[in-house]
Give the backbone structure.
Amino acid sequence: MRRDFSDLFDTGRPLIALSPMAGFSCVTYRGICHDFGADYAPTELTSARSIVMNGVDRSYRFMRIKPETEGVTCIQLFGNTPEDFTEAMKIICEDELLSRVDIFDINMGCPVQKVVKTGAGSGLIRTPKLACNIVTKARETAEALGKVLTVKTRIGYDESDKSGPEFARMLAGSGAQAICVHGRTAKQMYAGKADWEKIRAMRGATEGTGVYFFGNGDVRDGESARRLLEVTGADGLMIGRAACGNPWIFSEVKEYLENGSPCNVKDIKKTPSLSEKCDMLITELDGRIEEVGERIAVCEMRSVMPHYIKGFPGASGIKIALCRASTRMEVRQILDDCLLGKGNGV
Ligand SMILES: Cc1cc2nc3c(=O)[nH]c(=O)nc-3n(C[C@H](O)[C@H](O)[C@H](O)COP(=O)(O)O)c2cc1C
């Protein structure tokens, strides 16, 4: 059963998605971002090999989807053979809940050495024939399962790599229905500025193929979102780090793109209050507690909570206190003390 990417969304405007982020893109946060206007939010990357070897159980919590709160759902996989991807997709679709997923996304951008040295993630940028073979086979399987197949990649492997546009054209020609390009090389990891001109060159190379094209990298607000779309010519965009602890960014960007112009942006930028930020932190924590229990949730939130309290008076002290907390009650107390102005919670 053929399904097109654009069939999933009935909107004539650019799509705004939460960029997948390991440690941040849990099912709870993806639902929160959807509430604030994110059109969709892929899961963080999961190993196709592990699913083939062990079934879905070990990776279940990373792949868990909730169509009721997320809207369109997307599971991202990484791997290095077409067989692992196709087999993993079939295994996922044997699970009652996971079989409701709309999109499978192939990770061709992860720069982590452990992944790259196996030839997966951004390692696939260096083996374009294998990358295309993976896309061709995965698309066939996706179609048989009634799913959409997308790819997320980078502008190249390193500075000397000029293959980006050709790579994008090949991915589209092999059957990718949407491509997201992060404007950094794998070697850059997350350092430096995203190169939107290089994204534009890749977008240009896919012109006329019908592929939906996302630009990604350094979108921080409505104005940077507008500029990314303008410079790259992308159809839509994904927001990563600026959305950590900041689901409000989706409504801000959406409103800016719909109504905004640099002259009236002040009117539409809604900055949440400290108390709203604290409440949202607790909402995410509560969702995570439901997912994995209090001990693990509080522990995992240690890397997330500092993002919510960025810019608070005494933020560094609050951050230390939050990172020492091991229960929901302690977290709430630290936040309440900080809202009441009782020092910084340490
Ligand atoms: C902590 C962290 C985890 C990430 N995990 C993933 C991942 O699982 N899959 C993926 O495709 N990209 C991952 N990324 C990359 C982001 O999706 C995004 O491409 C990158 O951060 C650039 O966008 P930004 O400038 O808006 O943050 C991760 C990035 C960060 C910072």
